[in-house]
Amino acid sequence: MPAGPYWYVAGGAGTGATVRANRAAFERWRIVPRMLRNADRRDLSTTVLGMHLPAPVLLAPVGVQSILHPESELASTRAAAELGLPSVLSSSSSRTLEEVASAGCDAPRWMQLYWSSDREICASILDRGKRAGFSALVVTVDTWARGWRPHEMDRRYYPAEQGIGMAIPFSDPVFRSRLAKPPEEDLAAALQLWQRMPTDAGKSWQQFSFLRDHWSGPIVVKGILHPDDARHAVARGADGIVVSNHGGRQVDGAVGALEMLPEVVDAVGAEVDVLFDSGIRTGADVIKALALGAKAVLVGRPYAYGLAQAGEAGVRHVLRSLLADIDITLGLVGYRSPAELDRDALR
CA-to-CA distance for 71 and 68, rounded, in angstroms? Predict the structure, then answer.
């Protein structure tokens, strides 16, 4: 991979301490294998938000995928759909909602939202998502501004400045109505308009009702680490939580996401589905997250690397390898399904 796209995916905030903390959190837990438990046949299926999934794995929202492969989000969506796994479309997609929906066949598809300060544009994007058949909304709350990412700054690598990853807003009728010329004719003006409508740092949980008013399906809040924030989200009507620190891309020196998973599960796991991302690389990682209470995990960087190497086939290979790793590891440690895992499986 060229250095720019590689570090855009691999890099973290600041010194990379949070990226390292995510992996260190997995290393601190050890699986305790159990023997002679009739685990020769496994069933990886689970239910998340009332949806039956063949395995507890989703594709995390990864933006600007066209920097990795020309087929971008179409390729990753097709690969996930072939395996029946949901993919979460990033707000920074290189493709429109409608294009990705047409590529996803009948597999469940979710959409991510960076909650814009412009209510009309936000409502329009949500309406488009509903009409395109996206079944769940993932609201990312930890990215009202970009983290301090030296790897991108050192290389002056900012795809958004070229209009990459702007397919969803640039195709939105309300957004386009605010422009004298369409983005295709005046990219600079379109970028200036979007930059004036960032995800608003001034939002509070009291404003969550806006999302409920404009989205009738399940709402998942992504970017939660503190159990009190999880409680606030559930109290305001969230149907799910993703324990996540954005893969270490936002805050340098933050706690490893897995460290906080048990606390969030204890706080709200009896009320809503708790999912997890940030640091998943192997089947053993997935099993650890499930044992700590996650209903499913979201995988980001691994499939991004697969996309960069071989497009749709690369994503498919990464996902199949991860599913096979989960399956064999689950059996080797004496469990037949994700539902059987609990904290007793770990030390």
Answer: 9
Task: For the chain, report the end-to-end CA distance as a whole number of angstroms.
Answer: 38
Q: How far is CA 292 from CA 124, 267, 295, in A?
A: 38, 13, 9
What are the extents of the domains in the chain?
A: 3-342
Q: Are 213 and 230 in contact (CB under 8 A)?
A: no
| The pLDDT of residue 113 | 97
How far from 204 is each of 33, 215, 317, CA to CA, in Å? Answer: 44, 18, 41
CATH for 3-342 (3.40.50.300, 3.20.20.70, 3.40.630.40, 3.40.190.10): 3.20.20.70
Residue from 52, 214, 246, 317 carrying the catalytic annotation? 246
Lowest-pLDDT choice from 6-15, 173-182, 183-192, 193-202: 193-202
Q: 81-138 pLDDT, tens per residue?
A: 999 999 999 999 999 999 999 986 778 999 999 988 899 999 999 999 999 999 999 9
Q: Do 139 and 220 form a contact (C-beta atoms < 8 A)?
A: yes
Q: What are phi and psi of 198, to 5 degrees?
A: -75, 170
The span from the CA of 181 to the CA of 26, in Å, is 50
What are the C-alpha distances in Å from 239 to residues 127, 149, 219? 19, 32, 5
**Collapsed DSSP state (helix, strand, coil) of residue 135:** coil
Digit-coded pLDDT (tens) for 291-343: 999 999 999 999 999 999 999 999 999 999 999 999 999 999 999 999 999 99
CA 197/CA 114 separation, integer angstroms:
11
Return d(Cα 279, Cα 244) in angstroms, integer: 9
Active site residue 232: no
| Model confidence pTM above 0.85 | yes
Round to whole Å and give the CA distance between 70 and 74. 9
Is 198's pLDDT higher than 80? Answer: no
Give yes or no for a contact between 58 and 88, defined as CB atoms under 8 angstroms apart: yes
